[in-house]
Amino acid sequence: MKILTEPYKIKMVESIRLLSKEAREKALREAGYNTFLLMSQDVYIDLLTDSGTNAMSDSQWAWMMMGDEAYAGSRSYYHLLDAVQQVYGYPFMVPTHQGRGAEHILSKCLIKPGDFVPGNMYFTTTRLHQELEGGTFVDVSMDGAHDPRNESLFKGNVDMKKLENLTKKVSIDRIPYITIGAPVNMAGGQPVSMQNLRQVSEFCRKRRIRVVLDAARAVENAYFIQEREPGYASKSVREILREMCSWMDICTMSAKKDAFANIGGFLAMHDEGLYEEAKNFCVVYEGLHTYGGLAGRDLEALAQGIRESVERDDWVAHRISQVRYLWQNLKDMGIPLVHPCGGHAVFIDAKAFLSHLPQEQLPAQTLAAQIYADSGVRSMERGIVSAGRDLQSGEEHRPSLELVRLAIPRRVYTQTHLDYVAEGIEKTFRRREEIPGLRFVYEPKYLRFFQARFELQKKEVGATVE
Predict the structure, then answer these.
(1) Is 125 annotated in the active site?
(2) pLDDT of amino acid 2
């Protein structure tokens, strides 16, 4: 399988270096076997995240020079507002420093203690903000989303029966909204169909439950709809995205993904009353509602990036083809993966890769660490470490999926880089049975996967690994 020809040419380069195996192992120990704590200068190919790690275009850099740094009423804010209105279709918008800023404000506005917030699989920061306001997340994703071998084309879909059962179990006025991630990150970048978005919207609007779109990678979801859903092949990604948003009442956005920007986000909505409340919280937590914690130059980069993301379908087509190229290479090598290939990343099934390790020995965290040791490639754990603990009981959340995510930044790496990644992971796969698990030595209270530290499980002579 070949990657589609790049719809761009490279105008600037950044040097990278590959440390020796010994130096990588030392860096890993000093980072407590947490890839988040590695210094970027020690990373050869960085697939930790596609958030804020993209290469901006010459047009984005040019618009940054036009940034209006006025504290209040910046014209750059109005450029961003116009882009959001034109591309996503929401009339009201407050900028935020990134997506979790929008999640924070939304949770402050709408959640009361004792509320239940359904969603198509949890996301780390989204669920935490809901829980900090006294809400309880309820997973209403389809069962297949939790099975890495399930081949459903729209594994991100909401299970309508699960959603209906929730509305029968708890009072409707205790369900302020449902969050739809499209595509679903924690399931392997799996998309949601337009039909399912429509079903959720119609069901919820009859019951006056708001529907919230996590739009961080919604352009990718629109591409999958164009490619896979009957009736959409002749529509542009831009048209499909607008239709997706038409079924949603509110949109939280980390613009560090689809919009190619290095920082920024927004909260957008149709409801003017909610907008007024969100504006007020924006002032408290992010900054004045016409800058939202961002410099004018960042607002301009966002505005241009939003327009750019949908101006040509070949932008997202090339991006998806890079992910598929790496996925197919790894699949051909026998590496266990989440099926089918998703959008922003390739997800390795760490439970199957390190089948000798129980979940208590953190197979996904272990695998991410060992991939770096073997090749200098940085990836991210998406398993029990990311799932964290119940804030009330302290019990571990035990997800069925133990995944390692290889997130591909937009417009950054070449086919040769991806070939190197595949070869490095194959090297790790060949020695998988000798890899010991990890245990916590430091665990933060919130979002522990960012800052936790680990050590290798000790293997005693004549005994099995603890």
Answers:
(1) no
(2) 82
Catalytic member of 68, 159, 214, 298: 214
User: Is the pLDDT score of 462 beyond 90?
Assistant: no
- Catalytic, out of 35, 53, 96, 124: 124
Supply the DSSP symbol for 445. S
Q: What is the pTM of this model?
A: 0.94
Question: Which one from 123, 154, 266, 275 is the annotated catalytic residue?
Answer: 123
Told to judge if 159 belongs to the known catalytic residues of this protein, a careful annotator would answer no
Q: List where CATH 3.90.1150.10 sits in the chain.
A: 21-50+314-455
Clarify whether 313 is annotated catalytic: no
Class of domain 58-311: alpha beta
Catalytic residue among 257, 307, 324, 405: 257
Backbone angles phi, psi at 247, to 5 degrees: -90, -5
User: Can 123 be counted among the known catalytic residues?
Assistant: yes
Per annotation, catalytic residue among 137, 281, 449, 454: 449
Contacts of 77 (CB under 8 A, 6+ apart): 95, 290, 291, 296, 299
State the Cα–Cα distance between residues 457 and 466, nearest whole angstrom: 7
* CATH number of 21-50+314-455, picked from 3.90.1150.10, 1.10.150.450, 1.10.10.60, 3.90.76.10: 3.90.1150.10
**Which sign, positive or negative, has the C-alpha torsion 123, 126, 129, 133?**
negative
Q: Among 235, 378, 382, 410, which one carries the catalytic annotation?
A: 382
Residue 77 falls in the annotated catalytic set: no
Residue 71 is a catalytic residue: yes
Give the side-chain half-sphere CA count within 13 A for 266.
Answer: 31
User: Could you report the per-residue pLDDT of 360-386, keeping only the tens digit for each?
Assistant: 999 999 999 999 999 999 999 999 999
* Cross-strand bridge partners of residue 381: 404
pLDDT digits (tens, 9 = 90+) for 301-343: 999 999 999 999 999 999 999 999 999 999 999 999 999 999 9
Q: What is the 3-state secondary structure (H, E, C) of 368-419?
A: HHHHHHHHCEECEEECHHHHCECCCCCCECCCCCCEEEEECCCCCCCHHHHH
Using only the alpha carbons of the chain, give its radius of gyration.
Answer: 22
Confirm whether 260 is a catalytic residue: no
C-alpha span between 149 and 401 (Å, rounded):
11
